[in-house]
Amino acid sequence: MLEKIFPKVADNEYKGSKVPLYVLIVITCVFTFRSLVHFLAPDSGVQMIASIMLFEGYPDPNRIIYMFSSLGGAMQLLMVIIYVIVMIRYRNLIPLVYVLLFIETVFRIIVGMIHPLTAEYFTTRPPGTFLDLPMLFISVIMLYLSIGHKSKLN
């Protein structure tokens, strides 16, 4: 199994089910939107999408929140670029991408536990919080299918 996650040669010889590739395309599209919003939006999507309240003070505390969220968006965009490169040129690394997606999701959950934001910080619950648990399951199932377990959709 480790040889399928960390192949000696990165190439386009993908032997897993086609389903993980199609799911990765959908995930990449969603993550591209998410990344661009966090990276480029004036409020880095913090109020516009995540509905986190606007803070008051001098100097403006929102600017540093936007900066760190925008940096997070830049890192997300970097991962999206890697996903696209894998899908186009190095498809046998698709299992590794799902391992990374799983780890990223675990990290998101850990950060939420270390730095919990309770209801007084939001006007509504941020949409990203609804995706963590499903993404854990999706990444595990897609990893399983991508390491060579053929599905009927293959």
Helix and strand content put the structural class at mainly alpha
Q: Uncertain regions: pLDDT < 50 for 5+ in a row?
A: none
Number of discrete domains: 1
Count of distinct strands: 0
> How would you spell out the order of helices and strands?
HHHHH
Shape: elongated
Estimated radius of gyration = 18 Å
What is the end-to-end distance?
20 Å
* Helix run count: 5
Q: Oligomerization state of this entry?
A: single chain
Query: Major beta sheet, specifics?
Result: none
What can you tell me about this protein's structure?
- This protein has 154 residues and is mostly helical.
- The protein has one domain (16-146).
- The protein is built from five helices and no strands.
- The longest helix has 29 residues, at 61-89.
- 21% of the residues are buried.
- The mean pLDDT is 92.
Give keywords.
mainly alpha; 5 helices; 154 residues
Write the layout of secondary structure elements.
Layout: H1 2-5, H2 19-40, H3 61-89, H4 94-114, H5 132-146
Helix pairs in contact: 2-3, 2-5, 4-5
Task: Write a brief structural summary.
The protein has helices at residues 2-5, 19-40, 61-89, 94-114, 132-146.
